[in-house]
Amino acid sequence: MAEPLAFWFEFASPYSYLSAMRIQTMAREAGVALVLRPILLGPIFAAQGWNDSPFKLYPAKGVYLWQDMAREAAAAGLAFQKPSSFPRGSLLAARIVTANAHEPWAMDFTRAVFRANFAEDRAVERPEVIAELLNTLGLEAQALVQQAAEPAVKDALRAQTEAAQARGLFGAPSFTVGDTLFWGNDRLERALECAKTFG
Amino acid sequence: MAEPLAFWFEFASPYSYLSAMRIQTMAREAGVALVLRPILLGPIFAAQGWNDSPFKLYPAKGVYLWQDMAREAAAAGLAFQKPSSFPRGSLLAARIVTANAHEPWAMDFTRAVFRANFAEDRAVERPEVIAELLNTLGLEAQALVQQAAEPAVKDALRAQTEAAQARGLFGAPSFTVGDTLFWGNDRLERALECAKTFG
Fold first, then answer.
1. ipTM of the complex
2. Among A173, A199, B61, B119, which one is most buried in terms of CB atoms within 10 A?
3. Can you spell out the DSSP letters for A57-122?
């Protein structure tokens, strides 16, 4: 009996883009249910004493990141462009997915936001850009953007980020199968295998 | 025409163990020359503001490390034990390999040290443990331990660590092919492919 695979991601995270573009197909082929868990890395990094992305705090790591991303995206057949602004605000997109994680379109929207940020260099922190992505998917953009501003939705995203920390998450993407944690796009195969053979 | 693959490693680094145990066979099969470049992560981490291993400075990362290592070692068919002391001093072993990187036994000794640290929980910072590993390989332990204390050897290891930083290295294991940098055991395949198809 397969166990669900939870996908913990941050819309500003480059390696989360690599996972977001392939996880749904892979989970479907493995017969594993996928649960979307957007989080904010800001509070998680702050708890580690970082007031910014580690890719900015540690310049050598930052230089390497974009070289590695270009290679990994190319190997995966994905379009990629280094965003002209990094990290881009992910609050609105994360709230929309939090409020609608079980909707059939949630993964389509998630991919659209990642693609806009990392392949098209679009300002996904802006409500009008998010609204356009929602409209393109045939969704009620205005209603969804309004819903995202509800206190219950804000609280839910905050709680999900706290739940991530409580589970020992320290970066994104991460994957959990039951209590077992996997970190990084490089561990997606391992996490799926664990979900398939769980218990 | 294949380009040499340089392997930058730190004897205290868990993921360097995973690479050390497989890199020689893989390079040989790919027809790629292998160059051993031991370094000390201490000064490299210090330049990033860290006075200890990031796995100790960031506890969540440290907890995850040992879970991930156990899984990755098992998947690679490698014996693994969490060292009772971490990170273990690597100065003597690193100096011996620096002074003898081109000797045919250098990779055998490298593997023996990593195995002692991460599979047998032995105190590889102690000269008598290193001497025993050298003796087991049929080498002149006393002469090699003495050579490691020569100022020229100490300088060479220091220079190699500085060269690593100048190339943008920020962690271990790393691999370089020409000026192209790859970081982490998860990138060894990519680095080898780059070396094979270089130029």
1. 0.93
2. A173
3. HSHHHHHHHHHHHHHHHHHTT------SSSSPP-HHHHHHHHHTTTSTTHHHHHHHHHHHHHTS--
